[in-house]
């Protein structure tokens, strides 16, 4: 059920890489309290499907919930069964993209160069995740809009409070925010109040952008 309107309205996807399932659930609660309702639970988080299942049961349609760092067809199927509504892969492979598409969920696969973007489109991705976006910055994203004016682009890696408005001005449909929003240090130390504070900052800037 591809729904790019929901993604566009969500604005920010928090990339949650937590040291444990419990930490991921607590981080998600802090993010939601801070106004960030787009949650990408990565498969580098232990028991990621269980986390997705718990968050789906707890928050339902009030959040935009998906799985990230999807690298196998099995993970795509697990995430779908757990209640994910979108799937994100760091790169683009034809076999993986087909498996992700087979779930019927919104598919976001990673690319950087124009050739990779074209391949992602050929394989049927719904959103191209420009990763790592820090290598080119907002100017690079804007340049990609020239040959791909209708393409849904989501930069991830390098999105900060200082440049989030530039990403949207460059044409991003949404942004993925990892360490600058949900830092490993904050999660390891249990600083969920800091996660909530950063979420308020990101969400406020995203709405204003």
Automatic annotation (TrEMBL):
Lineage: superkingdom: Bacteria
Enzyme class: lyase
Keyword Magnesium: no
UniProt keyword annotations, A-Z: Carbohydrate metabolism, Lyase
Pathway: Carbohydrate acid metabolism
PANTHER family: 2-DEHYDRO-3-DEOXY-6-PHOSPHOGALACTONATE ALDOLASE-RELATED, 2-KETO-3-DEOXY-6-PHOSPHOGLUCONATE ALDOLASE
Subunit structure: Homotrimer.
NCBIfam families on file: eda (TIGR01182)
Annotated protein name in UniProt: 2-dehydro-3-deoxyphosphogluconate aldolase/(4S)-4-hydroxy-2-oxoglutarate aldolase
Organism: Glaciibacter psychrotolerans
Lineage: Bacteria, Bacillati, Actinomycetota, Actinomycetes, Micrococcales
């Amino acid at each position: 059920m591809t729904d790019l309107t929901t993604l566009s309205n969500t604005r920010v996807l928090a990339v949650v890489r937590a040291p444990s399932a419990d930490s991921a659930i607590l981080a998600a609660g802090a993010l939601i309290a801070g106004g960030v309702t787009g949650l990408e639970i990565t498969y580098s988080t232990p028991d990621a499907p269980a986390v997705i299942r718990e968050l789906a049961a707890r928050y339902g349609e009030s959040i935009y919930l998906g799985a990230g760092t999807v690298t196998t067809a099995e993970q795509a199927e697990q995430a779908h069964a757990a209640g994910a509504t979108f799937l994100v892969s760091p790169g683009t492979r034809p076999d993986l993209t087909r498996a992700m598409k087979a779930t019927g969920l919104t598919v976001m696969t990673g690319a950087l160069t124009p050739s990779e973007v074209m391949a992602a489109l050929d394989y049927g991705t719904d959103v191209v995740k420009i990763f790592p976006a820090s290598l080119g910055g907002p100017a690079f994203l804007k340049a990609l809009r020239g040959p791909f004016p209708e393409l849904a682009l989501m930069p991830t890696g390098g999105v900060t409070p200082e440049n989030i408005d530039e990403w949207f001005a460059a044409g991003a449909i949404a942004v993925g925010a990892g360490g600058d929003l949900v830092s490993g240090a904050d999660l390891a130390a249990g600083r969920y109040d800091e996660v909530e504070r950063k979420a308020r900052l990101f969400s406020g800037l995203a709405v204003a952008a």
